[in-house]
Amino acid sequence: YLRFYTKIFGADRATYSFDEHYIYYSIVFILSAIFIFFLFNLYNWDNIYRGSGYYTRILKAISINIVVIIIFGYILETFSFSRIWIFLLFFISIFLIFLSRLIIEMVTQKLIRRLDLSSKTLIVGIGENARRIEDSLNKYSHGLYKVIGYVDKLDKLEAFKDYLEESLYNKKSLILGLIDDLKKIVKKSGAQRVIISSPEYRYYEILNILEELKGLDVSVLIFPGFFEFSIRRMSMREIGGIPLMQITNIGFFGLNLFYKNVIDYA
Question: Which keywords does this Swiss-Prot/TrEMBL entry list (predicted)?
Fold first, then answer.
């Protein structure tokens, strides 16, 4: 409409006319955009957090989508694009997608805070890193993540007794426990994320922690400093401005579990 029916972008001597091909191109653009956004993990809430290359991935997805439209026109031998139309398609798509996602994000954050649906986060290890993680989550996660407690060795919990008492006073509710009881604590508290923050844990101790959590529907994230795991099991994440590595859990959950059940029944 802006290209062909307005004086702002319409030409005095029209070189291109509005025909049915533009309707087809619009349909292809929408369908391919859904697929490309899926490939760029732009429908996964954990991966669309601003700061994790979020805006760059949107720009790349839209740019690739424009190229797909042009290739589609060549293949069907209906290449009759207006360059102004392509220009408007690119920038208006960016504006509308950014605006709509910003509105959805703001509304979602308000609902999560109002309904108290924040993701419960349990931190393994108490110390400077744990304090930094909690402070950053409180400031920058917009209420999406909530630290519910700490798990560590007994001597470490006793060493940071003053900090824990202060945190307990501020939160009114704080889970404290020993690392040996991690699985029980996760089950009882309903924690959805476990962040291993202490660099003092050795490789085999971390393996034991992962073994304890195997089979539980919980995301395990490790504060940077542990690079011994296979890259296939790791993915970079950012929560509240904190760079974290997520270790792929062993098991089937959510949509993957549904697919597995369908295949099993088939």
Answer: Membrane, Transmembrane, Transmembrane helix
* Listed range (9-23, 193-207, 232-246) with the worst mean pLDDT: 9-23
Average pLDDT, the chain: 76
Please check the confidence at residue 48 and state whether its pLDDT lies above 60. Answer: no
Give the DSSP per-residue string, 172-220. S--EEEEGGGHHHHHHHHT-SEEEE--TTS-HHHHHHHHHHHTTSS-EE
Mean pLDDT of 171-185: 80
Please give the Cα distance from 75 to 152 (Å, whole number): 61
Buried b (16+ CB within 10 A) or exposed e, 179-215: beebbebbeeeebbbbbbbbeebeeeebeebbebbee
User: Residue 119 is encoded by which pair of tokens?
Assistant: 């993701």
**Axis crossing angle, helix 20-39 with helix 54-75, rounded to the nearest 10:** 140
Q: Which domains does the chain have, with CATH numbers?
A: 20-113 (no CATH), 118-257 (3.40.50.720)
pTM summary value: 0.59
Q: What is the DSSP pairing of strand 119-124 with strand 145-152?
A: parallel
